[in-house]
Amino acid sequence: MTELEKLLAGELYDYSDAEIAQLHGKAYYLSMKINNNLSFDNLEEMKLLQKELLPNMDESSTVLPPFRCDLGFRIKIGKNVTVNQNCTFLDNAPIEIGDNCLIGPDCHFYTPQHPFDYEQRRKPVEKSLPIKIGADTWIGGNVTICPGVTIGERCIVGAGSVVTHDVESDTMVAGNPARVIRSLKS
């Protein structure tokens, strides 16, 4: 099994592998072209570059630059989603954003998980765990979502939160680590 196949399967992989580095380089190049070389005067070119970087983003959605990601093709963005500026999606595992979500500025979605054993951490290895955000969820500004977290539908995550565990649908969470503030059920 190649290192890329291990990455795609959610297994421990060597992130210094040349094939993985090439894919990261392509995403970095496209991100930098979108972030640094375009103005809002040329939205058509920016949309074409974003489609190349994020082929699984619905056309009705918006990702404001600057935006950074590891691969791009592992990110799925549903309909009518807004990802505000300066977000980072480390998508070595899938990141799925449901329809009608609002992602505030400066949010970070981290799928990579380094080994807990310090000797193994000295090696260039990690595994990645998927992140899933349910429909109609609002992620406030400067939120960090950790590897393997699922946030249900119709949730609110307060600004500045660090989400380390799954969040049930119709729940408001906030804090570091994020904890339940209240139910949003009527």
Write structural notes for this entry.
The chain is an alpha/beta fold. Helices cover 23% and strands 29% of the residues. It has four helices and 19 strands. The protein has helices spanning 3-9, 18-37, 43-53, 118-121; strands at residues 13-14, 62-63, 67-69, 75-77, 82-83, 87-90, 95-97, 102-103, 108-110, 112-113, 125-128, 131-133, 138-139, 144-145, 150-151, 156-157, 162-163, 171-175, 178-183. The chain has a seven-stranded mixed beta sheet, with no helix packed on it. A five-stranded parallel beta sheet has the order 3-6-9-14-17. A four-stranded parallel beta sheet has the order 4-7-12-15, with no helix packed on it. The chain starts with a helix and ends with a strand. The model has no long low-confidence stretch (mean pLDDT 95).
Give a topology summary.
Blueprint: H1 3-9, E1 13-14, H2 18-37, H3 43-53, E2 62-63, E3 67-69, E4 75-77, E5 82-83, E6 87-90, E7 95-97, E8 102-103, E9 108-110, E10 112-113, H4 118-121, E11 125-128, E12 131-133, E13 138-139, E14 144-145, E15 150-151, E16 156-157, E17 162-163, E18 171-175, E19 178-183
Parallel strand pairs: 2-5, 3-6, 4-7, 5-8, 6-9, 7-12, 8-13, 9-14, 12-15, 13-16, 14-17, 16-18
Antiparallel strand pairs: 1-11, 10-11, 18-19
